[in-house]
Amino acid sequence: MNCLSPSILSADLTKLGEQVRTLDDLGAAYFHVDIMDGMFVPNISFGFPIVKAVRSLTEKVVDVHMMVEDPGRYIDVCAEAGADIITVHYEACRHLDAVINHIKQVGAMASVAINPATPVSVLSCILDQVDMVLVMTVNPGYGGQKLIPYTVDKVRELKKISDSSRNSFDIEVDGGVNTENAGMLLDAGANIIVTGSALFRGDLEENTTQFLNILEE
What we know:
Order of helices and strands: EHEHEHEHEEHEHEHH
Radius of gyration: 16 Å
Helix content: 25-40%
């Protein structure tokens, strides 16, 4: 099933409740919340109170993307705030296997993200343990960037692995996703589309409808 995961990073925080409810009503299946610490990425975004706020507004999947150093420190508080999926970066985890197990112990789905220049092969030992892999299609830290073309090949590679694996996993893409390239990413094998700027700039309802139509094609 293909799903839309709106990135709250691009939302109007003065209208967060209104926009989350609108997206929920229109059919968004996930809500993507980026947590940045200014260390792993050169930006600071939200903390766990925003996760808790989004959780209170919707029964849909709360999809938390941890762009922080040593994310294992925050797994418990992230789950307590209401995260359904907790994504940690391969590049930020010293003991990735332990972090994945920790996520599962708190009752959340475990996801691992890789940056554009990180090869899929680094995940070979843990792909049978994760529920989702997030392919960053831009260098993480800021919204509004252009998708890096070679990252689409990584989506294709992961799709082949998932199709041939006993434990298949979702493939999420994040960064520079718009109505012009979303279809290509879905064809490559992604089934969860994160989008921010292309969704929240302009008419939110119209933009959401366009994305959902692409997801249903």
